[in-house]
Amino acid sequence: MDVSVPRTLDEALAALADRPDAMVLAGGTDVMVGVNAGRQTPTAVVALRAVEELRTWSVDGDRLRLGAGLTYADLLAPDLAAMVPALAQAARTVGSPPIRNAGTVGGNLATASPAGDTLPVLLALDAELDLASVEGRRTVALRSFLTGPKRTQLRTGELIVAARVPATRPHQEYRKVGVRNAMVIAVASVAVVVDADVGVVACAMGSVGPTPLRAPRAEEWVAGRIDWGTGVPDAGVAAEFGRLVAEESRPIDDHRSTAAYRRHAVEVLARRALESTLAGVARAEAA
Amino acid sequence: MTMAPPTGTPGTPGTTARGVAGGLGESARRPDGGPKVRGEFAFAGDLWADGMLWGATLRSPHAAARIRSIDVGPALAIAGVATVVTAADVPGSANYGLEERDQPVFAADVVRYAGEPIAAVAADHPETARRALAAIVVDYELLPPVTDPELALTGEPLHPDGNVFRHLTIRHGDPTARGPVVVEGTYEIGMQDQAFMGPEAGLAVPAEDGGVDLVVSTQWLHNDRDQVAECLGLRPDQVRLTLGGVGGAFGAREDVSLHVHICLLALRTGRPVKVVYSREESFLGHVHRHPARIWMRHTAEPDGTIVSFEARIVLDGGAYRSSSYHVVANASCFAAGPYRVPNAHVEGLGVRTNNPPCGAMRGFGAVQVCFAHEGQMDKLAAACGIDPVELRLHNALDHGDHLLTGQRIDGTLPVARVIRETMALPLPEPAADELLSRPGAAGRTTDAPHVRRGIGFAVGFKNLMYAEGYMDGSEAACVLVDGLATVQCAAAEVGQGFVTLAQQIARTVLGVERVLVAPAETASMGSAGSTSASRQTWMSGGAVEQACLAVRDQLLAHVASTLGCAAADLEIVGGAIRSVPGAALDVDIAVEDAAPGVPFEARRVFHHRVTLPLDADGQGDAHVSMACAAHRAVVDVDPELGLVRVVQLATAQDVGRALNPLSVLGQIEGGCAQGVGLATMEELVLEAGKVRNASFTDYLIPTALDMPEVVTTLVEEPEPGAPFGAKGVGEPPVISSTPAIVAAVRAATGVDLTRVPIRPQDVALADRPR
Amino acid sequence: MTDTTYSLNVNGADRPVAGAWLGESLLHVLRERLALPGAKAGCEQGECGSCSVLVDGVLTCACLVLAASAVGASIITVEGIGPAERGEMTIVQEAFNDAGAVQCGFCTPGLIMAVHDLLDRHPDPSALDVREAISGNLCRCTGYGRVLAAVEVAIERSAR
Questions:
Q1: Do A182 and B444 touch (CB under 8 A)?
Q2: In this structure, which topology does domain C91-159 adopt according to CATH?
Q3: What is the count of residue pairs from A and C with beta carbons less than 8 Å apart?
Q4: What is the CATH number of the domain that holds B599?
Q5: Considering only alpha carbons, which residue of chain A is nearest residue C71?
Q6: DSSP alpha helices (H): ranges in B466-605?
């Protein structure tokens, strides 16, 4: 059958095994753009919209499991947003309301655009991805899953089932620069996740490299310059953190912006994001 | 120059009716509003015919090339492909063009821009057509594209007609006069696109007489028809155009796009053919606003009185002429802005390059120079130590003053008044601490302490209607039977509301409420001219008025003859024919009952007053009328990131007379939005002549979260000679809104911005490599 | 190429689609096969909102839905949002018509769908909520001023 609309994950994997040539369709917000423009010509389709189990989330201890079929609009629900606020912030910047109703976490991961809005957040959260095929299941760290612009480790016949992230890190933030106040692709973006319990800052950037990037040197540098009892950084730390993050970016010039501006923007965004997440830590510690 | 008195001013006894709902001066509803909100209105792309084929166009991916060969064989071999046409299949003129026929229907041997049509196919399905395009083999010999107009000026000709579309020199006053205060600047304007929402579309149906019926979205039916007929080798009457529903225009539909291709495909296949451009193809398939590089130098007295003005304006016209010749004129004639300038020297140049062709867009040359002259006014104010608004008031043009062309302003031009009324509008509240109101909005880039507010001001003007001796006219017809009026005119309704206005005119003149507006088409109507240059209210509104007045006179004569009185004893008042005060008879008959079953018909052509060509010094009474507007912009800026949020635009506009206040407001707000776009985000980005952002993903236009509140005052000073005293209102809003916003960003940031659109890096990295 | 056959539920009726190409979007099928051209093709990238429809009650860009995958879903288009009687309008449609929110009208059907979707979920949205809700509906004629005014009118009339 050329078009398959499975209702369960097993049916979906079987359909995909049956037609390895099939185009996998989740929200359609990336794939259908290609089809409409003639860049992709489907010979078979496996549409995931009716697979309910992909559209669920659950908490297991301190881990949150996000089904790949959750839409951006789903991520805005208050209970989810309370656990992963930066993911909700990122989701709100994606496209427009109808796009957020359709586009999915799994689709954002599979498309693997350097500008994918949820990716810096998931990367800063050290997300692990559950992948499945009829051959079996495996777990891959997002950090290694993304291999290049629109390139991933996903194999033929394999689906992204879920992303797993910590459920207990409320001090996190996503900031994104675009040239319009709505419905815009990121010129540069930054996600900062602070784990005050262990004294760790994680930072990831979007649209400034072939994939979303972490800033490991900046993260390591900053961790030792914050009073984790109060959440207060040493003087000038946020500004220097921004500079170090920018040093780890690898932006290019293109029709959307320039490398110089992108580097500058991640510096500013990282500084501001660190300041405001640490202010949150300070408020929590004071409370 | 003598002026005709105003005709048909609403309320003037004997010429108009009173008390009929939906007449002139009211915010009458659109006749197409109901169908449009219900999704029932038929746009050109919504059409369908039995046995219809789908057409598609192959375009050059290269900006400059020689075509060695084209092999359409592989495309023809695909099942479902009905025909493929190239330059070799064009039976008539190989070239078309709005003013000069310099643009090939299909490139035959030379490609001059990326996106130039090479071939067209007709097939049973859009996907088949797409595959057929991909199968056509074109062997290109690539040439280095000439994309810098300055290099094109001195380089080898890119076309047999040469590389200069126009070089206009204006010399006005004393060439040696100079004032002690001197300000100078160079300004750049990026390539803006009209970006209407409804892509180009049409349906062509072959006719039994060997001709073709074409339903198409356009701004000027008759000009299209003439070009299509020439290229097809048909008589004009064999090409019958009907206006399809138009999804916005803004200048981009003044030139022929798919017209010849689709007719050729229909005639070749003997079947109806439909073409609908994709968004990408739309960006490649119509002209854009000319990018410009403008140098200006003003000198003034220490009190701010302008003494001299010099400018060099270089407009990049791209590969073909379109309306470049007249855009150069507008940019040059209005280069100094609405100010008294006694001595001037302007060099205006329109240049051919291998960039995409540029032509008409709302504001037509005045937009580019306004950005420059308003930047100069702010500089001059600073140099003289005068408030920028006061400086503008001090130099403001008025009735009786002269343009750079020497023409005396004999109509209304209330420049000082629009400035004062704009400044009198209330300023917005201080920024509310809401995420979505800040620069960057949901992107959460900017916290409240990062925001700086700025206020800027600008004023602009331009001419209304065609200029330089063009013999312009519009034809309209009116039929009245039993109180039902039918008005017809070939004026293109592109969204602006001419259809509403036509009804309002008929209601007011004839005293009837039921008015039908018949379709715009070429078979039964003469030309109405183009829906451009803010001219249809004046020209076609004038024609409709004349036709309706003629019908009214027939009706009154008929009634008078049946009553045995003189027609002069009767008038139409409030839907009734009544005797004038003091008449012998006492008459009061409803218009619909006045002549049961008797039709009254009239057809009239309206002309505006004669204009003259410009002489060798760019002097002459070239323009019909002028309109002005002022804008005050309030912006919130995040200077460190260079992100801008326009908070408020206040504007007073010289409208002559508001015939439909709600429509006028819609024009003003819509024009402001295009000004916001040019100031903050809109630019077609070119790389070696190729458009890099031909999509709505990357050519950004303002969303509802980008548009500020617009507060508006209409300045109503009826224009002598204009039907009802009304001025066209579509263009002024887009002229000075852009420089006002840029001035506000300069005020907020201290950065001397000389280019639009403002890119974040222009602000954030003003002092560094960007 | 055109050999896909299925049935869609549109505006409450089952509508057979025969001989379609697999890659056809819901937008194309609505417009070209089911004679429902109310949803407009403005960009076919989900960037303009002119093709907005409701799929299982969710505001959706019809251009981004593969038609053959929408089998079993309930699809409502602008032609099906209002009263069935010809010439009748919903409160939102009437407000657009009255408040001057329509110029060329190409974006209008999409805006009508977006505003219905908003007011069905939030009968009394803030001004910024309204702007965000229609931020995916590009309009080139109005500058949104009269559109926002129309939404206010619709909210007011709905509350009566």
A1: no
A2: DNA polymerase; domain 1 (1.10.150)
A3: 98
A4: 3.30.365.10
A5: A5
A6: 498-510, 536-563
Judge: C135–A99 Cβ closer than 8 Å, yes or no.
Answer: no
**For B186, phi and psi rounded to 5 degrees?**
-120, 135
List all residues of chain B from 199 to 258 with a beta carbon under 8 Å from chain C. Answer: 199, 245-250
Q: Does B444 touch chain A (CB under 8 A)?
A: yes
Q: Determine the residue of chain C that is closest to A73 in CA distance.
A: C58
Q: Inspect the interface and report whether the beta carbons of A182 and C135 lie closer than 8 Å.
A: yes
**Residue the block writes with tokens 């006179």:** B553
Q: Is B442's CB within 8 Å of A260's CB? A: no
pLDDT of residue B431: 79
Q: The domain at A3-166 falls in which architecture?
A: 2-Layer Sandwich (3.30)
For residue B596, tell me if it sits in a domain: yes
The number of distinct structural domains making up chain B is 1
Q: Is residue B321 part of a domain?
A: no
Q: How far is B431 from chain C (nearest CA, A)?
A: 14
Nearest to A29 by CA among C49, B703, B770, B498: C49
Q: Is it the case that residue B364 has pLDDT exceeding 80?
A: yes
Given pLDDT bands bounded at 50, 70 and 90, which one contains residue B44? very high
- pLDDT given for residue C148 in this prediction: 98
pLDDT at B689: 98
Query: Across the strands, what pairs with A278?
Result: none
Burial readout C23-49 (b: 16 or more C-beta within 10 A, e: otherwise): bbbbbbbbbbbbebbbbbbbbbbbbbb
Q: Which residues of C touch A15 (CB under 8 A)?
A: none
CB contact under 8 A, B436 and C132: yes
In CATH terms, is domain A171-286 a member of 3.30.390.50?
yes
CATH code for the structural domain at C2-77: 3.10.20.30
Chains with ≥3 Cβ pairs under 8 A against B?
Answer: A, C
By DSSP bridging, strand B81-86 and strand B212-216 are: unpaired
Q: Is residue B565 part of a domain?
A: yes
Distances, alpha carbon A151 to alpha carbons A155, A164, A203, B44, in Å: 11, 20, 22, 41
- Domain that residue B526 falls in: 33-41+473-606
Domain residue ranges in chain A = 3-166, 171-286
